[in-house]
Amino acid sequence: MSEDTRNRFKSISELSRYLKKHLKDKKPGLKSQLKLSPQPPPSTLTIDEVGDHCLKAGVLVLFYPKNGRTHLVFIQRTATVSHHQNQISFPGGQKDENENIVEAALREAQEELGIRPDDLRIIGQLTSLYVQPSNYCIYPVVAVTENRPNFEPCPQEVAEIIEVPLDHLLDSRNLKQEIWNLRGREALVPFYHYQGYKIWGATAMILAELLDILSSG
Question: What are the distances in angstroms from CA 58 to CA 119, 127, 191?
């Protein structure tokens, strides 16, 4: 990816305008997501195919400035949460019956990281994703804020906060792959590498679509 593309979205305002426009267009969806799926993939089912037989969750894809660069925030989950223990993910969680997906993503981000919903501007949503191993349907909600949030992690749910510069993720040199043993079988696992962290699985699949959208304009 070119240096111009990686440097293009240093301004939160410019990034916001771009995403607000392009998230309304037809999105690449599963085609992009599968590029960062373990191979062979655990499932290629879409949410439409799964129907109402999955748990619904909203996750927050949050852009904010830090040290002159646009960042995204991830969390490493603790070993005691119900699903995806110890994995790196976007803040978020299961939707309550009386709320919509955006409300769920904002509530979970506040519970996990102390992010104030009133400080955020919702831009749109990425393509939803079915995660077969945990039977979750994940709905990524994209938001921006003009100031870095004052993160206050919940110790029961968040082992670590990981702040990753967007230009690092846009640099294809930071996309790696390894052979792992997943659920008793060998799989080729692609991941985004950052300071020793490996962002893989559903989180990487969501990122793949987001980065394709940012690279297409």
Answer: 18, 12, 22
pLDDT in tens, 163-179: 999 999 999 999 999 99
Q: What pLDDT does 99 receive?
A: 96
Q: What is the mean pLDDT of residues 4-15?
A: 80
Let me know if residue 217 belongs to a domain. no
Site of tokens 């109402």? 52
Three-state DSSP class for 72? strand
User: What is the number of structural domains in the chain?
Assistant: 1
C-alpha dist (Å) from residue 79 to 129, 164, 192: 23, 22, 22
Whole-angstrom Cα distance, residue 96 to residue 42?
Answer: 27
SS3 124: strand
Distance CA 105, CA 217 (A): 27
CATH code, 170: 3.90.79.10
Does the global pTM surpass 0.85? yes
Burial class (CB in 10 A: 0-12, 13-18, 19+), 7: exposed
Short-list 169, 163, 173, 123, CA closest to 145: 123
Domain holding 54, by residue range, is: 3-211
